[in-house]
Amino acid sequence: MRAVAAETLAGLMTQALRRRGLSEEHAAYVVDGLVETSLRGVDTHGVRLFPTYLAELDGGRARARPELRWSGEGAARVLDAGGALGLVAGRVAADEAARLARELGVGAVSVRSSNHFGAAAVYTLAMARQGVLGLSFTNSDALVAPHGGRRPAFGTNPISMAARGAGGDLFCADFATSQVSYSKVRHHRAHGLPLEPGWVVDEDETVLKPLGGHKGQCLGMMVEILCAVVAGMPLDAELSHLYAPPYDEPRRVAHLFLALDPGAFRAAEAFRGDLSRFLGQVRGEPAVAGARVVAPGDLEEETAAARRRDGVPLADEEWAFFESLARPSDRQTLP
User: Given its phi and psi angles, is residue 7 left (phi above 0), alpha (psi -120 to 50 degrees) or beta?
Assistant: First the structure.
């Protein structure tokens, strides 16, 4: 295990994406989203995903120069991403939702024909930085069984919400509607680590359990409706799997981004003050022995500060992959 400076990773990733034809802006969306996620300690959805995203580009599943097509009017827009990398489609859509909210008070963007978009917080944080309250959702390939079921029917279908309080204070929630993300199970398997009880259904460790039983199933189904059904895209059980070939066929993942301008409902400064007051109340709650009470996003902010100083931890084989990106020809088999 070694720690690598975020700037080093960003440079190597940018070179690899630019060699594949991404524009400077679109490459920055991908790199910034993955590096920020790793800095915040969400390693399963950070730079570890980069080899898979390169495989999608190299195989043709994702397009380096997608045709982004807009439709709709007013506060509701639809983006046909044309097979873009999810981090590209997501940032374009989230920025549009934030723009609509600043103009109209609320903005909603449904995205169709996209790919895996990484961590849902990438987009809510981007919207929060623009002064709006952001929410993001995506459907994904079926890995989660219904409560009491044995076969996968739903994706891990995450939900994220972020908003800024006073003085840079932050609320940022981002969670899968499964008990754990599949990327975490995959990482544990690859490194011979035991899985925690309640993560999976079957002995082969291939089917995840929903978060909190039937309530997690309900949340996952809500996200699937908001994304796939609203956008007219394949249901979770009809999607190809992120980590499985063929990498030459589009996946047609759907997302939804919502933005609210607090200033359209009340004085924005008063909203920020009350949000920080609320967060302070939560943080000030007494904790049981050996525990600590935090608000959503606190631990990630602390981790980001440490990793900006000390670097992003990578296993030796992960760093070897990133080192290989310095070569003029870096197309290779996934590690």
Answer: alpha
Confidence tier at 335 by pLDDT (50, 70, 90): very low
Q: Is the pLDDT of residue 137 over 80?
A: yes
d(CA 51, CA 234): 25
Confidence check: pLDDT of 203 > 70: no
Is the predicted pLDDT of residue 36 greater than 70, yes or no? yes
Global pTM reads 0.94
- Per-residue confidence band for 331, with pLDDT thresholds at 50, 70 and 90: low
pLDDT digits (tens, 9 = 90+) for 1-18: 999 999 999 999 999 999
Q: Who contacts 332 (Cβ-Cβ below 8 Å, separation ≥6)? A: 324
Both structure tokens of 333? 């088999």
Question: What is the C-alpha separation between 73 and 228, in angstroms, rounded?
Answer: 20
Cα gap 125→133, rounded to integer Å: 9
Read off the tokens for 112.
């169709």
Q: Helices H, strands E: what count in the chain?
A: 11, 9
List the one residue out of 103, 98, 136 whose CA is nearest residue 120.
Answer: 136
Helix (H) or strand (E) holding 256: strand 253-260
Whether 125 contacts 273, CB under 8 Å: no
Residues β-bridged to residue 77? 72, 109
Query: How far apart, in whole angstroms, are the C-alpha atoms of residue 170 and residue 333?
Result: 40
Contact between 51 and 332 under an 8 Å Cβ cutoff? The reply is: no
Contact 174, 160 (CB under 8 A): yes
User: Taking a C-beta distance cutoff of 8 angstroms, is the pair 109, 90 a contact?
Assistant: no
Cis peptide before 335 (omega within 30 of 0): no
Side-chain half-sphere CA neighbours of 32 within 13 A: 14
pLDDT on residue 68: 98
Nearest alpha carbon to residue 91 among 38, 7, 23? 23
pLDDT digits (tens, 9 = 90+) for 97-129: 999 999 999 999 999 999 999 999 999 999 999
Q: Helix or strand or coil: residue 309? A: helix
Two tokens at 282? 């939560």
